[in-house]
Amino acid sequence: MTQLDENRSGRTTVVGGVRRSGSSVSRNERVREVVAVTVTVLIIVGVWELLTAVLGVAPVVLRSPQQIFGEFATDPMLYLTHAWTTCYEILIGFAIATVLGVALAVVVVSSRLLQITIYPILLVLQIVPKVAVAPLLIVFLGFGVLPKVVIGVLLAFFPILVNTAIGLRSADREIIDLVRVLNGSRLQEFVHVRFPNAMPFAFGGLKLGMTLAVIGAIIGEFVGANKGLGFILIQANTQVNTDQAYAALIILSAIGLVLYGAVAWLESLLLPWAREVKEQGIP
Amino acid sequence: MRVGAYNADQVDSRDSAQRAQKPDIRLQHVSKRFRTESGIVPAVEDVTFELSDREFLCIVGPSGCGKTTILKAIAGLVPVSAGEITVFGRTVTGPYPDVGMVFQNPVLLKWRTILGNVLFPIDILRGGRKKAKGFAQELLELVGLSGFEGRYPHELSGGMQQRAAIARALVHDPRLLLMDEPFGALDQITREAMNMELMRIWMETGKTTILITHSIEEAVFLADRVIVMTPRPGRISGLVRVDLERPRAASVRLTPAFNELKGQVDQLVRGGMLESRRSEDVEDADSGGSS
């Protein structure tokens, strides 16, 4: 019990001059958190179910969780295959956006000239409304996976780029001086200092980028597709098939959540040291 | 620090005659001007001093007197506008690795353990971690951090982080140690403890050391000589030789001799023109006193 109390009352407890980090949440605490989240979700689903029964809203507008699950259960393979298509588009878009965002961040940070020439172009790309460009991309690139990936990349790369660039720049001046005193190369400066320093920032961008990659894929599917959950959603809308629309929407949300969680999990796995830093106020 | 068996050799070899023969570091009429939007600002003007082997020099002065600029210039990080800096017989034209640096903040790498941080210079110098590891362990013991090798910086207090930074500065065995207000961010009690630690470390390692500080007391306690600088532009206003016997105990701060020296430095800091013991290598400083 004292162990628990120590963790809760301020994460740093000075023991003989050493701050004991409380970032490792105890097992009991973890279980309690999981239970709390599960209960919350169950309550929401329960209230939803109850309200649809009590309020008597038109079935076209509101469906109960039970009915939605029923719709899913009638043809799970339909949903799963389309979900896979969407996942595929999201992941490829996200992967390309990550590589592009990080690479461009390095370019922008390492050269002032490249910064003032490339950055305005990137900014314009960011400002152009992607939803408006989407139909054009379908015309250019066809009905396949490609335009969805491109829209996802266009949406997702910018926050990754900006956050990574901020992280690369925010390395302590003194540490860079230290590298210079030791006659370290520019490459060493990046490998040993700037990259690791940028990681927590970059992950902030990656989490944002992942949610945007999901949106990008859906925009692409809305505008023109014959596969994917976005396509299912549009089809359901035109047929006024509310059950199907809800089912697609919920699966889509679940995909977004899981992918976001995967990035967050990867972050905590790769950067155990960053948890404490973040608690101290650095994003 | 009365138990001085381990440093007897160092003390013996530190007679002033030997010092005068081998100036390690020589600054001759060094000036540094910065170009800013409002024109050219002189940061340091006509600074001349020498430092001999294994000497501990403190530079004291208010903010804006160019102390940090001088330190960076000695490290080769900042080119001088005029004059010449010679270190170990070579003119400084750029950075060179025979320098250990300690800054006001520990600036440890958050993602490295304490041992990993101490080994950072070795990685940059591609020195082979295996060979250096034993020495790094020894240094951690020297700074009182053995047992904390595997900890991350955020798990240690500010004073302990600064100890690790000192170990990091020593790991590639540089001949020159440059410290820029290393204890400025610490509270008074921790600071005094760290002064004792640094004194011990310096006596054991025998590095030629330049330490910048705002604290007159810290300067007098640590230094062989104290250089006082006045701001805008940064000039040397005087020099005080501290001939307190080493090893110095914490209680030396209470002696009349110590307070006498403190008073001298204080006068110089305040721009007083009162007599102070100036060494021959700062004769130019007389004309560059207070305005």
Describe the structure.
The complex is a heterodimer of chains A (283) and B (291). With 283 residues, chain A is mostly helical. Chain A is built from 12 helices and 2 strands. Chain A folds into 2 domains: 1-56, no CATH class; 61-279, Orthogonal Bundle (MetI-like fold). In chain A, α4 packs antiparallel against α5 (112-127), α7 runs antiparallel to α9 (186-223) and α9 runs parallel beside α10. Chain B is globular. Chain B starts with 7 loop residues before the first helix and ends in a 22-residue tail after the last helix. The chains are: A mainly alpha (283), B alpha/beta (291). Chain A binds chain B through residues 14, 17-21, 172, 174-175, 177-184, 188, 192-193, 196-197, 199, 271, 273-274, 276-277, 280, and chain B through 72, 75-77, 95-97, 99, 101, 103, 105, 107, 109-111, 120-121, 123-125, 148, 151-152, 154-157, 159-160, 172.
